[in-house]
Structure formats: C-alpha cells, structure tokens
Amino acid sequence: MRDDQQPPDDPEHHPVFGAPEDEDGPAPAPGRSRRRRALRTALVSLGVLTLVLALLVGGGAWFLADRYGGNVARVQDVFAGLDPATRPAAATPATATDAAPVTFLLVGSDTRAEVVDGQLPDARSDAIMVARLSGDRQHVQFISIPRDSWVDIPGRGKNKINAAYAYGGPSLLIQTVEQLTGVRIDHFAAISFDELISMTDQLGGVDVEVAETTTNGPYTFPAGKNHLDGDQARWYVGQRHGLAGGDFDRVKRQQNYLRSMFGKLFAAGTFDSVGQVDSVLRIVTGSVAVDDSLGTTDLLELALSARGVTPEDIDFFTAPVLGTGMEGAASVVYLDAVAGARMWGYLNSDSLGQNAAEFADEALPDVPR
User: Fold this and answer.
1) pTM of this prediction?
2) Is 118 helix (H, G, I), strand (E, B) or coil?
3) pLDDT tens sequence across 21-53
4) Which residue intervals are annotated with compositional bias (Basic and acidic residues) in the record (predicted)?
C-alpha cells in the first residue's frame, strides 16, 4: 500500500518520538528572573534531563529540592556490569583549559519510565539519542540513532539496536552504543516524550516551520509557520506517511519540535508566573529517570556550568545512514560506518560543532518537511 493510501499516523498507536520502526513588559522580580534563567539553562544544556535542576538553582535550592527532587527516579547500577578495560576512553576537551565534555545516552518512550526497586522492568526504546555538552560548556549536540539500526549487540549477535534495551536494559544498550560509536557514555536518562510533549500547552504552544503542506489525522500543517498546541504537536511529530522521507522525516520533525521548544523556553515572557514554572516542573520531573550516579549536587553543578548555552548553540544530527533493507522479515536501517566513524570521532575530540558542515545531510535543516 502506498503512503498516500495509508491511514493517518495516530499518535495513540504510533510512538510519538519513535525512530524508524517496522512497517506492519515589566522587568520580572529578581527571584523569578533567576528561576527562569536557570530553567532555560538546564533544559538547553542537557535536553529534558536537567530541566529539574535548573529550577533547583533558581529560587532556594532547599525548597525546590524538597518539592521536586523526589520526582526524578534513579536507575541503579547502570554502569556496574561494564568492563572498564574494554570501554572507550573518555572524550577529550577541545582545549587544555576546557572541562571534560559530558555525554548522555537518552532513551525516549511514549510511556513513563517507571522505576521499580531501582530498575526499569518495562524498558522501551522508541528513540535513542547521544547528547553531548561540550567541554567549554557553550555547545550541545544531539545525535539520533535510528532504533532499527542493524548493529552488533555484545553477546547477542546482529540485531536492531533497540533490541539491546529489551535484552539487557540500559547497561547492554550503553555497551552496544559504545561499541558502535567509540564514544564513552557518562550518564543515562530515560524520558517519557509523551508526557514531555504535554508541556507544550503550559508554554502557550510552540511554533514550528514546515517545508510542505501535509495532513495527519484531524490536522493540516500548511507550509510555513505553524503554532501548535499539545494535541497538534503529537500529530505533527508522529507523522510518517505522506512524508517523502518517511520515518527519517519523522525523526527530523521530532528534533524540530525539540528545537522549537528550546527556543520558546528562552523567549522573553514565556514564564510569567511562579505557578506556570511549577506546572512545567511537575511535568518534567515526572517524565525522567536518570542513573544513580547523578546526585542533586552533580546536576546543579552541571546546570550552572552550562548557563551560557543558547538555542543557537544546539545542533541536531542523525547518525549517517547508507540505506534500508530487510533482515529476514525485519525492516532495518544500515548505518554508514565510514561517515559515522568521522562523526563520532569529531564528537570524541569535542570538535563536531566546528566540523558540522561536513554532515549537512545528517543535520536538522532549518525547515524540515
């Protein structure tokens, strides 16, 4: 069946942030200003992961930590089973005066990351991203790895990369990503993107640019600027059929939404009340689980160190792809090992931002489909 004959991509039935899948006025009061600035800093610095910390920095850490800190779940022993002798070396800063870069493995799903006894028993990986905060704390790169990427999983042989998460949870996925990329993962975060996207309404909606007019479900997204509420955002990021690039265009839409959300968080006047900040924090802290090596103090220090990051300092990429094909009955994505080695090598030397032009085809365009 052709794409134009397919039913709409209902966000109730397709992963909101899934990668390719099988086919079947007045100046604000000083305290509020600090909270707003800290919130924006943390979200941009490490994506959704450190949003909670930003508010901890903002207006009395003791109060906010007590109110929200317990909402962020911790996943135990994520790195316990990894052999230090076989792991990649730590990334090197671009200059001797820089701090060490920090690399997160972000795993997104449409369901809340429910931690039971320190574990994620119902682990899903609808989206996989490597996020890097540069050593100078001025730049952030997000690299999406298609979840159908055909890779070698340690101890399991060849399979789709998301199978690593199903087989062995965060630890095996980290091993797989480190083996694939040669990049050492410092921290892990599991995020419910469906809950996160509900923050759209708390922000008063977000604006996204669309290259071509498309329709999905009850909504038409005309070419040009579109102002999306939460429900529209779910249909926008969930669309696959009717897009020339199919799943790959959907990944770009997901990245485009995140880019627009970051911009909204930086926009003047977005947070006009403490209650609005409180609502956003409740959503975000209920959407995230992180590895247990990330204490509140660690996150606060990281958020503060990245306070200079702006939306213009954030780059989105997709791991280089050769094409798609079939392995048995499974539709898979074949990664480009040569181009990928260059991309991951630049990331390891903290120089991907300076060499971004080399990956124009993998970068998020200004106006995606």
Assistant:
1) 0.81
2) coil
3) 444 333 444 444 444 444 443 333 334 434 434
4) 1-15
